Amino acid sequence: MREIVLLVCVPKFKKTCVPYLELLILEYLDSRYSLFKDVALRPKHHFVQEIPGLMLEFGPLIKVWTMRYESKHKLFKKIVRSSQNFINVLKTMSEKHEYFQSFQRAGANYKPEVVINFESPFFPELYNADIQSSISVYQGSVFTQCESISVKNTT
Predict the structure, then answer these.
(1) Are residues 7 and 47 in the same domain?
(2) Which 8-state DSSP code applies to residue 136?
(3) 151 with 114: CB under 8 angstroms?
(4) How far apart are CA 57 and CA 127, in angstroms?
(5) What confidence score (pLDDT) does residue 111 get?
(6) Same domain, yes or no, for 42 and 79?
(7) What integer pLDDT is reported at residue 50 of this predicted model?
(8) 17/22 Cα distance (integer angstroms)
(9) 56, 93: one domain
(10) Per-residue pLDDT of the chain (155 residues; tens, 9 = 90+)
(11) How many domains does the chain contain in total?
(12) Residues 98 and 127 occupy one common structural domain
């Protein structure tokens, strides 16, 4: 199953991989059927057989997936359920969505992109002549030094 998912979610694929993917899918369905004879196959098990043909027709399926739209749809379903207002559903959803967007734009869950750890004054005389000469261009500037810097959660 993991190998099927890896092959289906690749950003680029070779057409020679499609028959291998078909074989993996058939093996998966066969083993599932033999292990769970009491449980009937669901439509999703039949749909998975169409994936190799869709990959040949549309290219990598990761580029045409709808997960982002499903995420947005989940927000609207949650709004309707929590508000319990079914009189003017579209108005309720649009208002709540605008409040949510405003909340996000105002900095909710804001994390700075650059985080400086253990900042201290910079003393150029403690460093070798090459470093001193390279910063001499910036005479009059105040420098600080730090142990580490994190940029977008990469230290």
Answers:
(1) yes
(2) G
(3) yes
(4) 62
(5) 66
(6) no
(7) 92
(8) 9
(9) no
(10) 899 988 888 888 888 899 999 999 999 999 998 999 898 889 988 899 999 999 999 888 888 877 777 777 888 888 888 888 788 888 988 998 898 888 878 765 666 678 888 888 888 888 888 888 888 888 777 788 888 888 877 88
(11) 3
(12) no
Q: Are strands 114-117 and 148-151 parallel, antiparallel or unpaired?
A: antiparallel
**Claim to verify: residue 7 and residue 50 sit in the same structural domain:** yes
Indicate whether 71 and 99 sit together in one domain: yes
- What gap in Å lies between CA 11 and CA 15, rounded to an integer? 13
The residue with tokens 């390279």 is 134
For residues 35 and 47, membership in a common domain is answered with yes
CA angle 59, 61, 65 (to 5 degrees): 135
> Which amino acid belongs to residue 81?
R
- pTM here is 0.48
Structural domain span for residue 10 = 2-63
Residue with tokens 């261009």: 137
E strand or H helix that includes residue 112: none
